[in-house]
Amino acid sequence: MVTIELRTTAPLLDLRVYADRLFRSASIVLALTSVAFFGLLFLLSLFFQDGLHYSALQAGSTICPEAFGVAAVFLPSQAAGFATVGAARTSVASSSTPSG
Predict the structure, then answer these.
(1) H-helix or E-strand containing 64?
(2) Closest CA relative to residue 29, chosen from 99, 96, 95
(3) What mean pLDDT do residues 11-27 have?
(4) What integer is the mean pLDDT of 10-27?
(5) What is the rounded CA–CA span in Å between residue 22 and residue 75?
(6) 39 vs 30, 32, 33, 36, 65, CA distance in Å?
(7) What gap in Å lies between CA 71 and CA 76, rounded to an integer?
(8) To pair with 78 at 20 to 30 A between CA atoms, which of 7, 34, 37, 60?
């Protein structure tokens, strides 16, 4: 699969972009952060349903504000931080916060 993508003129995913160290590192950090965040949401839903005996609707209603809170509060602050102090400091700050 990799050799086919590298040889074709219009690949589905240009794997040469991963030769850039910064892009590769950012992709790895993004993947790990996403796995951690969505894993937390999954485990919380299991805890609410099995541990606290909530229904699926109650568990989803309890978890939904967290997802919207991250999207509504944290993401715009990241954009403002990126414009103000730059990418490196914003990345370090977001990695050290619980929601980032």
Answers:
(1) helix 56-69
(2) 95
(3) 84
(4) 84
(5) 21
(6) 14, 10, 10, 5, 16
(7) 8
(8) 60
